[in-house]
Amino acid sequence: MTIELLEIRNFICQYPPFDQLPDEVLIEVSKSVEISYYRADSMIIEFGDKIHDLFMIRSGVVEIYRRTGELYNRLDQGGLFGQMGLLTSNKVRFPAKAVKDTLLYCIPETIFEDLCERYEVFADFVEVEGSIRLQQAVEDNSEDANSLTTSKVKTILSGEPVMLASSTSIKDVAMIMSEENVSAALIKDLSLDDEGGESFVGIITQRDLCAKVIAQGLDVDTQVDEVMSTELVSLDHNAYIFEAMLMMLRYNVHHLPILKNKRPIGLIEVTDLIRYESKNSLLIVSSIFQQNSIDDLILLSHQTKDCFVRMIHEDANSHMIGRAMSEIGRSFKQRLLELAEEKFGPPPVPYCFLALGSMARDEQLIVTDQDNAIILSNEYQEDLHGKYFEELATYVCDGLAACGYTYCSGEIMATNPEYRKTQSQWEECFADWIDNPNPQALLNCSIFFDLYGVYGRPKWAEQLNAFILRKAKKNNRFLACLARNALNRTPPLGFFKDFVMEKDGRHRNSINLKRRGTAPLADLIRVHGLAIGSQSQNSFDRLEDIIEAGILPPSKGKDLQHAMEFISLVRIRHQALDIESDQEPDNNIEPENMSDFERRNLKDAFLVLSSAQNFLKFRYTANSMQNS
């Protein structure tokens, strides 16, 4: 083999799909290659041109365009283009232009067709576009995941729940439960107008019948509403079995109503979950509530990283890992608040302790700080009650920091008096941010618009969320400003390299997958979610609502789901690798530590993000919002 052919062979064997072909085939391909040179800014192929070669970039940078002139892709060394034209009647579908001086290997159509025919791995690669390849990468990752992390609670429902009127006698309740062979029934109040709300007001279980009726010698003709449990815990039908386990452990309940559109469609018991149990990953939630001091919680918190790594080894997807870590974080907060009330006494007025940001969205990972706030009763008086809530907030935030949830550098914590407000003050605050979207207000919105009631009066958090949705949805100017703010963080794609690296700090020459990936995705999804009035907080759940609302171009919603999942998984896996290497995990990844698989599919994911940001800019410009 000549030196020239050896050089071609050694080059093409480094890049997919040629890296999967036998050596004798690579030699055959190398012999057929012709070399072409294009100066910077010159067109290589035009839309509609005849095409008879597959192009591989030996050096240089090539931009690929749609027929409309919109930038579709940027390729550099090892990149392929022209395959779609060869597959569609030999006509160029995507014009290509040399951005800088570019050297190309031209592989003849006959060789291209022969490779497609003989090698499935080659055909699979060239026949799919980036978004489809990304989808396959995400699906391939999850196909071996265990049932705990991929099955939804609706799949284990055995039938509709038994629902009885609150006026039913205990005797009749027991008879019906026996006839239906169930250990619990839901109780509804027929006098209530339950439009838009949950259609049950309580639950009665066999344990209640034993402890509250038989043991107390209660008259069996008593109405069931006298003995039913009214502390209701429920879960949406789209939640995962994994979440049901977390919920039942956290609240120590044995029966969990499952809702669809806030209506009960089933009831699951602990026994329904036994075959899905994965104690190694989940018992930490139960253990949190058994600890009696901050020191105990600190010792337990060391298991959080182990839990995180175990879930990855169990092939959990990013959605499940985010929810698990968020639930663990909220459980630490709740237990600290319980301990704080034991220390300082009951609160002088009711309150709701809020989780903000990724913890509220169920997207928290192992590298996180704490963002929290307090909603206080409108009866709150600073001079009478201020000291109590200042001490409570300090106790909880210091405890969280000791358990690994570092202080927020921006001081978005309940220890900051600015973030301890009454219900009416919070509504005034959010109304002002929405009506006057200055840069600081928009920054606040990106954090505070994702909130979750952890403890106290969680209903207040739901009411505040509803207030935000009502105000934001009808304010076109605010949505336009929020959309523009969501474009401040762009994906790390450049002209001359696959990725643009961080330029300074200890993470220079790396990519921050949160700041340049998952965060801008969450930002743009939030804008669309507010525009359609989505009540969901999690980005994946919001995307389901957005897709259903039909405001995105066809297939773009699914592309966003796959992009979010893949970037999150890469981020998660590299944090796990850091933990297993006894290094402090972070959100940064160096290109040399990426596999070819990660590099290729991350680029596809970032292109999806870039395209989604372009659509956001178009949809929510001030003019288009005024005309909508």
Automatic annotation (TrEMBL):
Keyword Transmembrane included in the entry's annotation: no
Hydrolase is among the record's keywords: no
Species this protein is from: Agarivorans aestuarii
PROSITE patterns per record: CBS (PS51371), CNMP_BINDING_3 (PS50042)
InterPro entries documented for this protein: CBS_dom (IPR000644), CBS_dom_sf (IPR046342), cNMP-bd_dom (IPR000595), cNMP-bd_dom_sf (IPR018490), Diverse_CBS-Domain (IPR051257), DUF294_put_nucleoTrafse_sb-bd (IPR018821), GlnD_Uridyltrans_N (IPR005105), RmlC-like_jellyroll (IPR014710)
Keywords annotated in UniProt: CBS domain
Annotated PANTHER family: CBS DOMAIN-CONTAINING PROTEIN (PTHR43080:SF2), CBS DOMAIN-CONTAINING PROTEIN CBSX3, MITOCHONDRIAL (PTHR43080)
Residues annotated as domain Cyclic nucleotide-binding: 17-115
The CBS domain, residue ranges: 156-220, 228-283
Record's protein name: DUF294 nucleotidyltransferase-like domain-containing protein
Pfam families, per database record: CBS, cNMP_binding, DUF294, DUF294_C
Signal sequence interval, chain numbering: none
Xref: SUPFAM superfamilies: cAMP-binding domain-like, CBS-domain pair
